[in-house]
């Protein structure tokens, strides 16, 4: 480190980026691993556990869109308007970790200008565990998904007979049967309309809307299950007794057993009737790969005894593997899109012991594409049919890092750190009108890609401690920062950040 940049004293300064450069003809290599681990997050300012969506006495419609649809179908088909779908009393424990290890090579082209390349190796890990009991449960596994013997045949026969019965009744009404006028305003037509509505609700309960599937079904012992059995029996009896339509006799198959963690896991990975995620959901898993490579140029604006400053222009390249939502609770290795970032780094030296570093940065994130399962914010289990390749415009960001340090010895300093960062909301949209129509067909209802915008804004405040050291050939530092606030909008991991910096340099020419 140049004495001119440190007021004539060797002050270690690794907590925040420094204003100095490698120097003409020198290559400076920095090893900068950072570890972030969390089991909670700030959601619109409130600190909440990661597994909250599947934790509680009543778990279902609020976090799982297909259960919300099933709940409405059961209310329609059973005549029980107060039915509240519940998988059971459960606790989902989730912990996520992200280890980023950038290796940066900086080459000094002159005493004021340097260029650098930073190659990040990223390791993301997720641990998840679900405990579920039958307390309060009124849902079980769909007999089709559970593999109940002859369930497919039973449902096929049920709906075939139901459709035949409805078709005969419709034909009789059209033939002026039952005293119905040409306007069809009669009891038989009202019965037919009601039966068609119930038939649609029952079919969705079994097969889902569109191509979504339906992994769960009401228990035969629940109020919704008993209501469905009574309504089906009434329809079958009224068909033959009042309208002389015969052929609707097959019972409607319901779930018999409550759910276990293993049964829910089967629904998560099943691709035909379940959610179609890859891999076992309850496990400690990790992925390792290349992040988004950064290329930067740094120009030293000032290098006085008491003040130093530098300007950095950076391009972040889309070198990471493209992301998708096929892994449950997935973390991405990187954004896989281009960022343009500018930084202003300033250093102020007061006397021979106090050093203050302030780094301000702002970035423009260029639009790209992203594969996502389209669902409301907070949904934790989304069917594979909701997957779409979307146009994605990530929000721009600004941040500031501050680190006052006090030199205890010529090579050793300690101090505090503070970091503030804010990112605007992302914007999702369909790449074409046909993509929107295709998704609506798969989900059975028109769905806006913009619902993914919710929760993508971020605002965080961190405070921490730092220890730095500079030796004859190696510089180093260690810092710990804790996220203490997530602001009032968006989602921010409530995470501590552990950072180690090791740096060395040598002259090339």
What do you see in this structure?
36% of the residues are buried. The longest helix is centred in the first third of the chain and has 24 residues, at 151-174. Helix content is 20%, strand content 39%. It contains seven helices and 22 strands. The strands form four sheets. Strands 1, 2, 5, 6, 9, 10, 11, 12, 13, 16, 17, 19, 20 and 22 form a 14-stranded antiparallel β-sheet that branches. The protein has a three-stranded antiparallel β-sheet with strand order 4-3-21, with no helix packed on it. The protein has a three-stranded antiparallel β-sheet with strand order 14-15-18. It has helices at residues 65-78, 143-146, 151-174, 187-207, 223-243, 261-269, 433-443; strands at 26-31, 34-38, 40-43, 46-49, 89-108, 113-133, 139-141, 216-218, 284-290, 294-303, 307-316, 339-350, 354-365, 368-373, 387-393, 397-409, 412-423, 427-430, 458-470, 474-485, 491-493, 496-507. Helix 1 (65-78) packs antiparallel against helix 4 and helix 3 (151-174) packs antiparallel against helix 4 (187-207). The protein is α+β, with helices and mostly antiparallel strands and 509 residues long. Strand 19 and strand 20 (474-485) form a beta hairpin. It has two domains: 3-135 and 267-507, Porin; 139-257, no CATH class.
């Amino acid at each position: 480190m140049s004495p001119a940049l440190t007021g004539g004293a060797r002050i270690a300064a690794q907590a925040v980026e420094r204003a100095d450069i490698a120097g003409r003809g020198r290559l400076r290599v920095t090893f900068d691993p950072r570890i972030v681990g969390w089991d909670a997050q700030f959601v619109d300012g409130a600190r909440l556990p990661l597994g909250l969506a599947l934790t509680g006495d009543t778990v279902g419609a609020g976090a799982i869109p297909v259960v919300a649809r099933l709940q409405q179908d059961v209310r329609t088909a059973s005549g029980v308007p107060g039915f509240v779908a519940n998988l059971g009393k459960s606790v989902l424990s989730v912990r996520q970790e992200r280890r980023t290890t950038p290796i940066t090579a900086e080459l000094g082209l002159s005493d004021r200008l340097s260029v650098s390349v930073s190659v990040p190796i990223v390791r993301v890990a997720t641990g998840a565990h679900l405990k579920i009991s039958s307390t309060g449960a009124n849902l079980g596994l769909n007999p089709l998904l559970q593999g109940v013997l002859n369930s497919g045949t039973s449902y096929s026969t049920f709906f075939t007979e139901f459709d035949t019965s409805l078709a005969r009744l419709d034909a009789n009404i059209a033939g002026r049967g039952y005293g119905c006028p040409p306007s069809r305003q009669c009891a038989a037509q009202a019965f037919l309309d009601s039966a068609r509505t119930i038939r649609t609700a029952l079919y969705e309960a079994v097969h889902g809307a569109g191509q979504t599937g339906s992994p769960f079904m009401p228990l035969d012992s629940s109020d919704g299950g008993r209501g469905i059995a009574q309504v089906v029996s009434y329809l079958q009896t009224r068909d033959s007794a009042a309208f002389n339509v015969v052929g609707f006799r097959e019972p409607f198959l319901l779930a018999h057993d409550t759910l276990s963690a293993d049964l829910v896991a089967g629904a998560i990975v099943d691709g035909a009737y379940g959610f179609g995620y890859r891999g076992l959901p309850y496990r400690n898993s990790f992925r390792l790969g290349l992040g988004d490579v950064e290329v930067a140029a740094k120009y030293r604006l000032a290098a006085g005894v008491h003040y130093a400053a530098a300007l950095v222009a950076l391009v972040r390249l889309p070198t990471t593997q493209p992301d998708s939502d096929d892994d449950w609770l997935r973390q991405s290795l990187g954004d896989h899109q281009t960022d343009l970032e500018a930084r202003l780094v300033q250093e102020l030296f007061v006397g021979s012991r106090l050093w203050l570093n302030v780094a301000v940065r702002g970035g423009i994130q260029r639009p790209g594409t992203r594969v996502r399962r389209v669902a409301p914010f907070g949904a934790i289990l989304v069917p594979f049919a909701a997957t779409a390749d979307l146009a994605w415009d990530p929000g721009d960001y600004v941040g500031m890092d501050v680190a006052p340090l006090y030199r205890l010895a010529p090579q050793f300093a300690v101090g505090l750190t503070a970091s503030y960062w804010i990112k605007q909301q992302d914007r999702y949209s369909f790449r074409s009108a046909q993509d929107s129509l295709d998704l609506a067909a798969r989900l059975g209802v028109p769905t806006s890609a913009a619902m993914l915008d919710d929760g993508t804004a971020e605002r965080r405040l961190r405070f921490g401690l730092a220890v730095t050291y500079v030796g004859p050939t190696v510089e180093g530092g260690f810092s710990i920062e804790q996220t203490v606030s997530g602001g009032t909008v968006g989602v921010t991991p409530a995470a501590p950040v552990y950072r180690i910096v090791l740096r060395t340099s040598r002259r090339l020419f």
